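Structure ticket #2291
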Amino acid sequence: MIYIYTNDDGFSNQFGELLGRGKVDIQHVSTIVGEIIDEIKSEKNEALKRHISKFDNWLPKDDAELKIDVESMKRAYDNLDNKLRDALHLAYERIKVYHEKQLPKSWFDTEDNGTILGQRVTPVDSAGLYIPGGKAAYPSSLLMNVIPAQVAGVKKIIVSTPTPDNEPNELLLAACHLCGVSEVYKVGGASAIAAMAYGTESISKVDVITGPGNIFVATAKKMVFGDVNIDMIAGPSEIGILADESADAHHVAIDLLSQAEHDEMASSILITTSETLAKEVKDEIQLWLEKLPRQEIARKSIQERGAIIIAKDMDEAVGLMNEIAPEHLEVVTENPWALLPSIKHAGAIFLGANTPEAIGDYVAGANHTLPTGSTAKFYSPLGVENFMKKSSIISFSQKGIDEIGEACALIANTEGLTAHEQSVRVRLNR
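Resolution: structure written out below.
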């Protein structure tokens, strides 16, 4: 773990390394992913089955076996522990209510001369959702991707998830039933992205692809972008914490580790104005690590990509965190809301000592699919608008075109586009 003061001689170089933490190096897998995409485009299901055999260690006997039957989803749901079922329902309802508030509205404005301008918002026809699977499965990611698509009004929703050894994760199946998803395919990695982007005999081409994944999935999403829309190119998970002397070191330490346990490449960064807190957190991290089942992953993440920075004041701390633009940002200070106006870049902002990042992963209601690697400077969390698009509405009356048509014709003439000019002039002063 990097442990530095902002006034250290080497701070600029060390901070620069932190800013490069989330860069996804796709070059070394681009050739492999490109070949996978080409095979899916040309061979469709046959290539899918070959890739499943190679990467997931089983061979579908026919096209029908690529799809998970709805009966098995219902059975998995029925077999859930009652408390877990209730927890999933709570998450579902809260996520749904939150995303319903995001729905953009169509609007129309009528001018005095009869001209009407507006915007019409409509959902895409179809969406493909990639959900990681296998040994680690994330039903929460299914909820976070399906629900905004449903709220947007998408009619056709396809889910694709890897199933090593042809053993679908039961919890993921239960979540599919809860969400009412009926098209779920046992396809993972770049193959799944290509199948949803271009279509096969079994999997329909979609309009937008969302969902997290490894570097092969991220690379495939980048390569198919333009043929379909995507949500974002996400890298390893990360958390930033702004804290002052009022923060509880025990809590801050486990919050940092909540991201470190995801992945050796995950990044956990504390910026504080309190040297005492910094030292206590460092010690608490070591104590917590001994208790974690995933301590090897978390330890490597903390050692190689974790950092504690001691800033001279909170203004400097906030400025540095804005440069980092973390996926998750916790603000654990005496008055966290006072800092909110100064925070410009973060995927999700968690305010106050009782708001751990994990509450946002599951039941708060806000989406947990977030921009990483400083892309929060220009990307937003996954939401309803990822599954919608806007059309401009324009309607001119005779009076309206008479009033401003001459200006339009003049600009068209200046650009040398005669047909544009005349298409306006033939309508003037009729």
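Closing remark: The chain has a mean pLDDT of 95.
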